[in-house]
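**Reference record**
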Amino acid sequence: MGNSNNLVKYPRTPHVPWSPGNTADDIVLDSIRHLESLVDVVVTEKLDGENTTLYRDHMHARSVDSRAHPSRDWLKPFHAGFRHDFPPNFRICGENLYTRHSVYYDSLPSYFLVFAVFEHETCLSWDETAEWCKLLGLEHVPVLYRGPWNEAKIKSCWRGTSAFGAEQEGYVIRNASRFQFGDFGRNLAKFVRASHVTSEEHWMAQALVPNRLSGG
């Protein structure tokens, strides 16, 4: 489905300087002055799933030419249930949490949790994102903090335990207001726990172990 020329790869999110989980090919910020200038930020839990983008007529993982995998099969009927209810120029980005990667979740509200909604080149504000989730019957990632930049409060969002009872992978800081796709790296940053990859074998090569929904 869809025209591959119109597909957009979700950008890489840079690490804050105090993030211990960065690897050699990650982007680590030297300065957070641009984040400190934000008047309203939202900190959400970073979940251990697969970055996935949904369009009205297409879907893909981080790579726009992602191949088939059993952990992605459930997305087709899920997507079909609401894809005609959002505009064709929208794309909804979230975590596909169907299968365990390094963290096992046993009380998820959904296998797909939204963390961003784009309209063309604009990332919608967090309030707009939450409203679209409500309209479409979708769940979004847990909010850990909302307010002005406060480094102490933001750092306290590392609690070690996920909102869903498992180990916490980290958190993501984002500008609560709208921003342009080209300014992505200046409006988001992440903290990732140390040694967040616990297996030398990529999760796609391992036996599929589905996470559990809160209803069992």
